[in-house]
Amino acid sequence: MTVTTQAEHHAGMPTIDGRAAWRAADIATGNGALTGVRVLDLSRVLAGPYTAQILADHGAEVIKVEAPTGDETRGWGPPFLESGASSAYYASLNHSKDNISLDLRTDAGREILGHLLAGADIVIENFKAGTLARWGFDYESVLSERYPEMIYCRITGFGVDGPMGGFPGYDAVLQSFGGLMSINGYPDGNPLRVGIPIVDIVAANMAVSGILLAMLERGRSGQGQLIDITLLDSVISILHPHAANWMVGGTVPKRTGDFHPTVAPYQVFRAADGDFFVSAANDRQFRSLTETLGLPELADDPRFTSNGDRYAHREELVALLSERIAQCSREDLGRRLEEAGVPASPVHTVDEALQSEQVRHRGLYIDDGDYRGIGVPIALGRSGHRRPRPAVPLGSDTTAVLAAMGYGTDRIAQLRTAGIFGNP
């Protein structure tokens, strides 16, 4: 997809090739299943950037475009990277990407954006509804006709139509609006936000799924399409089993603390040296749990024979189990329950989890002097993946990307002086 503007034609300037912006796309090998795919990341904060990062992990060449003020998550710290270029928050969502800075409020900035769009296989954006249309890049009426193979992923809070279409969306707001907050916490306490931005993270993974589905379909039809992802859809999709329980039983789900809404025992207990989680979701596991704890008589107690019985008498059951678990060390009990086939684990802190032998064995925590962060969680047996490279400072690749497209040294200097890339 090569674009030459009328002004460039009359001025005798070189052709600007949008495809050439992705300098490594045609030469990268062995980086994963998406090697050679060109992704334009126009998003900010979490869901969009994380979507693009997942694609980059599997070989896609990603160019992230940021305003001269930068993605606001660069300032979401402490902690900050030693270079001071960004926060840990930003770095964990934007590794393995090239980065350019453009003031898209300017004609020149939008001209460059047009060339980047011309070369992209996939576009990811989470602008306020209508923003790209005002700039002349509406997907439905412009981009889909100009570039029919383009896969365009739009991420919004509530969608662009309907009674709340165009409303801004934030993770905690959607946790609240979508019912998730109402079922998280203790019965006698306030509704609680889940301790991670779960709605944004689910939206990102749904966006990746949608993009890959569209790529599969494009292989048959030759046509791209819109992937319409909303935070609202994402939070509603994860209300299991509470949504199903209400639809069938009619009772509004309430907060149950660390009790499971349908299974017992399935919760945190206090061991001698810290918190410990136990799940005995079927009768065999429950019998093994009681035998391991030296309480085999509980498995034949009429109050605890089936899961329904155990749930009905869960407070009595928890009291009996708690007394015995409180006498055990976490590691010893965990080992014995594992051997007995009962799902259980010490409640690890984040540092304990990241430094555990199995997490390191899986390559999920990398600290090799060049990159320190989470590894790639999707493992493909044959295709492999890209080894993450650190997120870069704002605008690090602006000059190189524009030069690759065909912008001359003088023109790049003019754009820089005009503030198109930020403060000159």
From TrEMBL:
Report whether Iron-sulfur shows up as a keyword of the record. no
Alphabetic keyword roster: Transferase
User: GO MF terms on file?
Assistant: transferase activity
Coiled coil ranges? none
Give the PANTHER family listed for this entry. Answer: SUCCINATE--HYDROXYMETHYLGLUTARATE COA-TRANSFERASE
Q: What is this protein called?
A: CaiB/BaiF CoA transferase family protein
